């Protein structure tokens, strides 16, 4: 594993390089801190203009999508940015994932992780936002996460398209001996209207590549957009309906071997005793390789095919060490409960004077509650896998992943080859939801490739390995107390949220031995930054002292805080005899974008109508990733249990780049949240995860899926994300509906522990 | 042993206990059927044997008799199958990983029930998990495919 010193030094060198390179003439964004990674990669007859665009003489236009496609449609939207400014339709464009390169750093991903609330537009917040963006540049962090990809690409990739179009026009002007001002572009050609003469982009591409791009470009006004703002055909759809081999698990190379892993089911434990002889003798098994990384210890089984590797792993006889954390769920929850009650924490929001507000509160005006959410697995459809080859001093990794630069750093280190001799290919991902921001699969594959005599090895995990070796969404416990005023509105709200720190867990894995200093935003994200005005309002995050691997799970901190905060709001509404939607209108009146989505969803769902016996609705609102999302779900009691009938979603994303994809992501995010809220929990016994596959960690099935209606609003002046925004309000909306239907307030997820779903 | 896949007869050198899924993927190089769970719980590996949808992850290759069809064998002469066409038009797929299985199940459903109701669809497709939550569009696409198929006749 990489030593701290090495990583830190590299980080530092990168920073220096970024500063030194910053003086280069800029065109595709303010300065050009990194080499264009496509130079040296272009084929004959192909020209590259910047890290995002290649055009070949035969008119093939390739756009590099530096963010990974895991189903969220980002490849399509990123290609549309370039196409819009290049003045071509989307079907003219081929999309490739970028190589792992610092040029593709994601500034937005870090911008949202600062200590300021999204809606705080003060100068200071803006400063922090851009300063953190600079850190993204310095670290060269290329990542897909935080619903940031489209926002990050919005400027950079449109500029890339515009700059490319500008040099193509200049090259055409030279070729045709005509002034640039008389030329126009029309779907891949540069035309001179008066004479009818024209050339295609491809014909002048090589000339254009040698022209210095303009220092600044003017981007098309929103009202002139031809592609953006309209639903596009997804660029990956044809491959996905024909079963094309586009996923990591589909990688197939000459002389390839197959493998799987068996990692200690006890977190943090190593093998104490191992008998590998039986496995070694199994037919098709080639070699057993011991594995040790910061993620876990165990064995790799190299075989002639995946099935033989699976059988070989089953035949390994290993005794594992003792757990370092409490061995079962009760023990773990006790640690978290203690943290929630008496742990010292970080106050992430502190309006008014909460202590005084509670000091003289009459008992009748007090509400207290405790909420709980369990550990959760990501369980994307494609199990973890990675292919690696170490040959002639060069390491090549093919991985469905969200963090290619990190994989490149750490796998190079592990293989003992220089960074320049390491190539990472990002394949399509069969889902990720945050799981593929981890890099364990790549580390194991690299260690296995070291033992494979130069053969490429495809390492596929069983579903059981995948589910039992996730970096989980931590369990959390929140303690809430509220004081109501005579008007039924909250005078004070105090929320203490305790669970494992995701940032601490992550930093511990990537930079072993280091700890993440300061407060962890993700513990309270979705509670401390909601657009409610309450005179005395305090949110505290407490880190529970546990070391199970935890990480980002679709919508991160909002996944638990949406449930805590919006369950609390519903309880406050009922206790104060205020309609839940009316309560939101009152408390969020300072944020018109929030009130607008609340009003919209109320109208869509006909909130307040009298429902027949046995039906009820629930409401929730969460601002996350810069988008304002309100949901209403209607449920019905049926003989088989509670059935979800319909969900209405109103979301303000600021600028809607592709309504079709936004609608799809809202539904997708909601179903993801509902799946967890209804059924999912990861529990522990003997230091191991008890669930192993979809029979005991299932997700929503088609017969459980409600109908959906989505409205997209564009009131807010800044663009928000879409990939995770649908998830946070789903659980509280459903729990609030269950209360409305049954009178039972379920304060602990999954709901199926207390009620039955059809 | 010999397998009949998508109209081709293939010689397969595999342990008869190996699930059909791995024989197709690792040995025959047919990558359309996907590995999701290995225990017949998710449907990602669905293929047809003589038109009947089966979970190839849980069927030993030695026990297979009959004509196997995978997603690669659906389109004829470069034309998409009506179900694939409907999937394209409804823009169903997100990550896409479950979709080969979804499409194979939907094809079998429509061969049996020409105009399925929502309930028919929910019943037939319940074994196909989609973690991306594409269910509403799957329902719409199955109905569109039914219409496309009727129009073809
Ligand atoms: S892989 Fe066969 S049903 Fe899941
Ligand atoms: S489209 Fe991703 S699992 Fe179905």
TrEMBL record, chain A:
Gene Ontology molecular functions: oxidoreductase activity
All residue ranges annotated as the Aldehyde oxidase/xanthine dehydrogenase a/b hammerhead domain in the record: 242-324
Transmembrane annotation, as ranges: 12-30
InterPro entries: Ald_Oxase/Xan_DH_a/b, AldOxase/xan_DH_MoCoBD1, AldOxase/xan_DH_MoCoBD2, AldOxase/xan_DH_Mopterin-bd_sf, N-heterocyclic_Hydroxylase, OxRdtase_Mopterin-bd_su_IorB, TAT_signal, TonB_box_CS
Record keywords: Membrane, Transmembrane, Transmembrane helix
Coiled-coil residue windows: none
Keyword Transmembrane helix: yes
PANTHER family found in the cross-reference section: ALDEHYDE DEHYDROGENASE (PTHR47495:SF2)
Protein name: Xanthine dehydrogenase family protein molybdopterin-binding subunit
UniProt organism field: Mesorhizobium denitrificans
UniProtKB/TrEMBL annotation, chain B:
SUPFAM superfamilies xref list: 2Fe-2S ferredoxin-like, CO dehydrogenase ISP C-domain like
Source taxon at top rank: Bacteria
Domain 2Fe-2S ferredoxin-type, residue spans: 1-74
Keyword check for Oxidoreductase: yes
GO molecular function: 2 iron, 2 sulfur cluster binding; metal ion binding; oxidoreductase activity
Pfam families per the UniProt record, alphabetical: Fer2, Fer2_2
The keyword ATP-binding is annotated on this UniProt entry: no
InterPro entries, sorted: 2Fe-2S-bd, 2Fe-2S-bd_dom_sf, 2Fe-2S_ferredoxin-like_sf, 2Fe-2S_ferredoxin-type, 2Fe2S_fd_BS, Beta-grasp_dom_sf, Diverse_Oxidoreductases
Alphabetically ordered keywords of this record: 2Fe-2S, Iron, Iron-sulfur, Metal-binding, Oxidoreductase
Record protein name field: (2Fe-2S)-binding protein
């Amino acid at each position: 594993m990489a030593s701290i010193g090495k990583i830190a030094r590299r980080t530092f060198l990168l920073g220096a390089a970024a500063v030194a390179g910053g003086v280069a003439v800029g065109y595709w964004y303010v300065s050009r801190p990194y080499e264009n990674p496509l130079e040296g990669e272009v084929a004959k007859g192909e020209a590259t203009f910047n890290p995002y665009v290649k055009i070949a003489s035969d008119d093939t236009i390739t756009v590099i999508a530096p963010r990974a496609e895991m189903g969220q449609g980002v490849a399509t939207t990123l290609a549309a940015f370039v196409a819009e400014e290049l003045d071509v339709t989307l079907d003219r464009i081929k999309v490739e994932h970028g190589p792992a390169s610092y040029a593709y750093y994601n500034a937005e991903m870090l911008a949202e992780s600062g200590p300021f609330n999204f809606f705080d537009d003060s100068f200071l917040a803006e400063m922090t936002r851009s300063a953190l963006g600079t850190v993204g540049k310095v670290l060269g962090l290329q990542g897909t996460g935080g619903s940031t990809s489209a926002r990050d690409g919005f400027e950079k990739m449109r500029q890339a398209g515009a700059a490319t179009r500008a040099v193509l026009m200049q090259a055409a002007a030279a070729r045709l001996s005509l002034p640039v001002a008389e030329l126009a572009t029309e779907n891949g050609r540069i035309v001179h209207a008066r004479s009818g003469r024209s050339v295609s982009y491809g014909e002048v591409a090589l000339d254009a590549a040698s022209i210095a791009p303009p220092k600044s470009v003017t981007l098309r006004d929103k009202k002139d957009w031809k592609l953006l703002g309209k639903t596009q055909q997804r660029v990956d759809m044809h491959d996905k309906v024909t079963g094309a081999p586009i996923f990591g698990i589909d990688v197939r190379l000459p002389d390839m071997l197959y493998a799987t892993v068996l990692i200690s089911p006890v977190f943090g434990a190593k093998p104490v005793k191992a008998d590998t002889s039986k496995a070694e003798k199994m037919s098709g098994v080639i070699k057993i390789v011991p594995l040790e990384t910061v993620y876990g210890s165990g064995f790799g089984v190299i075989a002639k095919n995946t099935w033989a590797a699976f059988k070989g792993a089953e035949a390994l006889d290993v005794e594992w060490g003792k757990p370092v954390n409490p061995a079962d769920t009760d023990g773990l929850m006790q640690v978290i409960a203690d943290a929630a009650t008496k742990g010292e924490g970080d106050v992430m929001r502190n309006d008014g004077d909460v202590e005084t507000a509670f000091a003289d509160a009459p008992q009748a005006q007090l509400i207290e509650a405790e909420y709980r959410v369990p550990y959760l697995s990501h369980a994307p459809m494609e199990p973890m896998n990675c292919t690696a080859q170490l040959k002639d001093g060069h390491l090549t990794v093919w991985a469905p992943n969200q963090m290619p630069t990190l994989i490149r750093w750490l796998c190079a280190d592990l293989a003992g080859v220089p960074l320049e001799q390491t190539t990472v290919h990002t394949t399509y991902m069969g889902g990720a939801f945050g799981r593929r921001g981890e890099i364990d699969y790549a580390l194991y594959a690299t260690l296995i490739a070291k033992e494979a005599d130069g053969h490429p090895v495809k390492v596929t995990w069983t579903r059981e390995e995948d589910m039992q070796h996730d970096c989980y969404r931590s369990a959390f416990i929140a303690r809430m107390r509220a004081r109501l005023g005579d008007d039924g509105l909250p005078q004070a709200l105090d929320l203490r949220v305790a669970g494992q720190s995701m940032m601490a867990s992550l930093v511990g894995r990537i930079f072993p031995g280091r700890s993440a200093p300061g407060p962890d935003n993700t513990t309270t994200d979705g509670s401390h930054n909601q657009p409610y005005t309450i005179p005395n309002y305090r949110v505290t995050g407490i880190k529970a002292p546990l070391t199970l691997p935890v990480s980002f799970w679709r919508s991160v901190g909002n996944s638990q805080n949406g449930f805590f905060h919006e369950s609390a709001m519903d309880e406050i509404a009922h206790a104060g005899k205020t309609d839940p939607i009316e309560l939101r209108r009152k408390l969020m009146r300072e944020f018109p974008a929030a009130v607008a989505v609340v009003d919209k969803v109320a109208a869509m769902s006909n909130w307040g109508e009298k429902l027949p016996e046995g039906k009820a609705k629930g409401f929730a609102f969460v601002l996350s990733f810069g988008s304002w999302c309100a949901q209403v779900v209607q449920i019905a009691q049926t003989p088989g249990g509670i059935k979800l009938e319909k969900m209405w979603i109103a979301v303000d994303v600021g600028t809607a780049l592709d309504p079709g994809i936004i609608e799809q992501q809202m539904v997708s995010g909601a179903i993801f949240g509902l799946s967890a809220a209804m059924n999912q929990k990861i529990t522990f016994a003997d230091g191991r995860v008890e669930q192993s596959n979809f029979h005991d960690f299932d997700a929503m099935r088609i017969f459980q899926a409600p109908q959906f209606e989505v409205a997209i609003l564009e009131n807010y002046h800044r663009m928000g994300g879409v990939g995770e925004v649908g998830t946070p309000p789903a659980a509280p909306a459903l729990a609030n509906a269950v209360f409305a239907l049954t009178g039972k307030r379920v304060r602990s997820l999954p709901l199926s522990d207390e009620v039955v779903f059809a | 042993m010999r397998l009949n896949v998508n109209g081709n007869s293939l010689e397969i050198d595999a342990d008869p206990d190996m699930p059909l899924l791995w024989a197709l993927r690792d040995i025959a190089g047919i990558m359309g059927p996907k590995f999701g769970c290995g225990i017949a719980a998710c449907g990602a590996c669905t293929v047809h044997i003589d038109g009947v949808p089966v979970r190839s992850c849980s069927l030993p290759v030695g026990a297979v008799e009959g004509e196997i069809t995978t997603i690669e064998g659906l389109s004829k002469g470069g034309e998409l199958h009506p179900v694939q066409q409907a999937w394209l038009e409804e823009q169903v797929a997100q990550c896409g990983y479950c979709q080969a299985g979804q499409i194979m199940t939907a094809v079998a459903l429509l061969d049996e029930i020409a105009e399925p109701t929502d309930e028919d669809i929910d019943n037939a497709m319940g074994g196909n998990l989609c973690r991306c939550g594409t269910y509403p569009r799957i329902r719409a696409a199955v109905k569109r495919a039914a219409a496309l198929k009727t129009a073809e006749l």
